[in-house]
Amino acid sequence: MFSFKKFLVCCFALVLLLGVMTGCGSDEVSVEDAEAEVTIKSSNWEFDKATYTAPAGKPVAIHHENVEGHHGITIKGTDVKIQGDGSVVANLKPGEYEIICDIMCGTGHTEMVSKLVVE
Ligand SMILES: [Cu+2]
């Protein structure tokens, strides 16, 4: 039989759960809310630009897209690591960072190196 009291308890639990979830995620900016974005496209065996630029000290959405082959990116000196296609949000300090392919993708793998300039 349907119990209204049970229903209320469930609603309360759900609200509580949602509250906890939003509370935990409050310091993380979603990809949609990032203030700038950088798109890195990979093919065999190069990134689409030699140098990418991003603003410092702001949430930046970094997108990685495989145009050809299967690649991943690691931006050395940061926490940014995207294997395959995907997006992450990063808040970076000024400087120059090396972008490398982190998936063993074939003969040109070691040549897949670009630069990210954060200023
Ligand atoms: Cu590779």
Automatic annotation (TrEMBL):
Entry-linked PROSITE patterns: PROKAR_LIPOPROTEIN
Signal peptide segment: 1-26
Keywords from the UniProt entry: Signal
Domain of life, source organism: Bacteria
Name the record gives this protein: Cytochrome C oxidase subunit II
